Structure to design on (230 residues):
């Protein structure tokens, strides 16, 4: 175990919690581009190449006032549910799993560690994504939606809910995230957090987080955490 994770993790490892978009399913860019398109429709010119940098990891409840402020236009109460349906429709057209995700999940499964998902996406949206990417069997009945709870990341509620549902303590969990708001939620929940990031993209300087560049590295980390004793 690295020094960074040891600042928070106490072990033994009892639960792995995954974000969804950008960690399990390669849907982050698609959803961010849809938000950029919606911003342009409202009058805020966010080009597609800046979509991920602008909206990654954010909930629709956070994005709507951003667009309203920058566009100078009130979008109304129907904007968020309408965007949610645009996400679902896009996922039904096709979405790919993150490279190496099935092998990584098989490794975690062989170690006997329970898994859950805690995402800003709705359960409806995640159901479509997991069906399209053959991930449903890994997470049947083990999905938690911050959007459906009404408390999106970076608030920690969805991660705490996942730990509570498993009957474990936050310090006995490890989270896999890719966005700053998601990592902040994990940190605020008191959980160790591994961030999946490109080699040239830094991570925040927060207690209890470390960086990996591909999913095979996460399998190695989980294998080490399993051996940690209190």
């Amino acid at each position: 175990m690295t020094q960074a994770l040891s600042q928070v993790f106490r072990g033994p490892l009892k639960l792995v919690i995954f974000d969804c978009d950008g960690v399990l399913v390669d849907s982050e860019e698609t959803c961010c581009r849809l938000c950029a398109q919606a911003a342009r429709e409202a009058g805020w010119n966010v080009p597609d190449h800046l979509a991920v940098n602008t909206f990654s990891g954010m909930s629709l409840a956070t994005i709507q006032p951003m667009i309203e402020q920058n566009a100078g236009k009130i979008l109304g109460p129907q904007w968020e549910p309408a965007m949610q349906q645009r996400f679902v429709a896009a996922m039904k057209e096709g979405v790919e799993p993150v490279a190496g995700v099935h092998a990584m999940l098989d490794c975690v499964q062989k170690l006997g560690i329970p898994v859950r998902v805690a995402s800003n996406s709705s359960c409806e949206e995640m159901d479509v994504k997991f069906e399209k990417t053959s991930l449903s069997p890994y997470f049947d009945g083990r999905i938690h939606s911050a959007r459906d709870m009404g408390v999106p990341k970076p608030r920690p509620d969805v991660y705490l809910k996942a730990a509570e549902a498993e009957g474990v303590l936050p310090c006995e969990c490890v989270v896999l995230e890719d966005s700053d708001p998601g990592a902040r939620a994990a940190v605020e929940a008191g959980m160790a957090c591994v961030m999946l990031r490109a080699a040239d993209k830094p991570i925040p300087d927060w207690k209890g987080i470390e960086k990996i560049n591909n999913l095979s590295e996460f399998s190695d980390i989980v294998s080490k955490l399993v051996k940690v004793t209190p």
